[in-house]
Amino acid sequence: MSISKSYLIFALLAWAEARFGQEHPAAIQEIGAVTSGGQPGEAATIAGGAISDLLAAANPCTKLQTGDKIIASLGTGADAVKAAQDFVAAEQNFNPFTQRTPTLCSDPTLPTTAVLRGIVPLIDPAVGGAAVANKLSAQSLTAPFDATGLSVADVFAAHGFSNFTTKGLDGAAGAAPAAAAGAAGASAGAAAPASNSTAAASGSTVASGSTCGGAATTLVTQIVAATSAAGTAGSASPATASAAAAAGTAVADPGAGKNSSIAGADFGLCDPTIRFAGGLGGRPATEFTFQSNDPKIEAIQQEALNPNIITNRVCDELTNQCKSNQKAKDVCQAAKAKVSALGTKDQSAADAFNTALGF
Questions:
Q1: For 138, how many CA atoms within 13 A lie in the half-sphere containing its CB?
Q2: Which of the 8 DSSP states describes residue 1?
């Protein structure tokens, strides 16, 4: 095994260990420390078992059942309620090597305990839209959302985050509900500062569109891409830079999705076009990246140096939340392939994608 491969493996192991510590928070200790109710040793037993509910392979619905169990077994004392709420809001372990998005519970009856309903969990910061989701999670602990007849997955989608898959208590998998357009649009602006701080803390932008190559491989790819993009931006003419910067603040036309020149292609609720602009996501005005022109999609996807990340997200969301017809989805896949084959990371990539979509 080469030194570089060995280094990469050690780096990935260190990263995984660090994330494990972050994803198994003080909530576990809080459960074990409950003294207001329960039999002797019962709190510690529940805390020990609760760790398995936060593992990546665990059914997210069993985590909510454990939240109910904390209240049922340890009572409704302040310490028990806080421990249960913090546990429901805890981030479930996420393995980017085997899946691209987290999985949330789709059972509308869980949790059954009133003080736990309307609370949504933290999401791994590597996931597109995590800044929005984590702001919602923090908010839900102080002011739980209305969850009448809704699952945790439904509540998240109703407030603008839908970059996830679902699973029922019986293990049945499903897709995320469509995100509420108004909520997603409102979240887009609010998410920017949190998203920027996440990127700054990690030292790199990790895109949600990455495949199972993993976070470390994505980091290397982004660093290489950043070098290329910086060179492109530096050689851009003032007119091009000015136009791109203006595009960075553009607001999508809500009806643009229906104006494609391709007969029969209806993009539904979304504007499928993308832009190449400087200054996105708090970056310097001279640093150019790609982003969706649709506020709903932008709310769950960070800007990226690689256009393929953004085109992939756009095509995914045509199914997830845009209510586009099959013709539009087929057109998007063809446009995505065209950009991938083109291989450029400048305005020509955005133009090629938008033109192929009929805009």
A1: 6
A2: -
Cα of 335 vs its chain's centroid, Å: 23
Query: Token pair of 199, please?
Result: 């990127």
Strand order, beta sheet including 103-105: 103-105, 165-167, 173-175
Please confirm whether the linkage preceding 111 is cis (ω < 30° from 0): yes
The model's pLDDT over 175-207, given as tens digits with 9 standing for 90+, comes to 888 776 545 433 333 333 333 333 333 333 333
Locate 240 and state its tokens: 């091009």
Report the DSSP pairing between strands 274-278 and 103-105.
unpaired
| C-beta of residue 166 within 8 angstroms of C-beta of residue 103 | yes
| DSSP annotation string for 281-310 | GG--TT-EEEEESSHHHHTTS--BSSHHHH
Strand partners of residue 274:
292
The mean-pLDDT minimum among 57-66, 152-161, 274-283 falls in 274-283
Question: Quick check: 336 and 308 in contact, CB under 8 A?
Answer: yes
The Cα 11–Cα 200 span in angstroms is 19
Q: How far apart are CA 166 and CA 18, in angstroms?
A: 26
| Single-letter code of the amino acid located at 221 | T
Among residues 257, 293, 258, 261, the alpha carbon closest in space to that of 274 is found at 293
pTM above 0.70, yes or no: no
Contact by Cβ (8 Å): 92, 60: yes
